[in-house]
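hey m, so remember when u said the tokens were messed up on ur end? i reran from scratch. heres the input so u can diff it against urs
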Amino acid sequence: MNRNLRLVLLASLAVLVVCFGARTSSSTSPPNTTATHESRELSGTIRAVDARARTIDVITGVGHSLRIYRMQIAPATEVRARQATLPLQRLKPGTVVRVSYQLIRALPTAPARLDAIGIEVLSGSSDR
């Protein structure tokens, strides 16, 4: 009985070594260090606009919580309201917007950057 237990333990240990050994040896490729760009869209309310730094803070609801997203706005980004183009300075806190943006991850450990690529005013103080 004792010999059978030893054989089972030895066989289990051998299987574990083979499985984990094969798993670690196949991942010898270097990590991907190139930036990835994921296009996304969100709707929310503008909390703050910094025209000099070209950033906006957008509040949006996610489940039972609120999230604040800070987005960088490129000079080529269009701000549109009712088919008209607006300057960034016309955006005010309280304006409801739909923002198309790119999630840019430079490194796996670095925080992602959000770059707005399009802003559509849905309602609020900037469309008056």
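this time it looks ok to me. Helices lie at 2-25. if urs says something different then somethings off w ur setup not the seq
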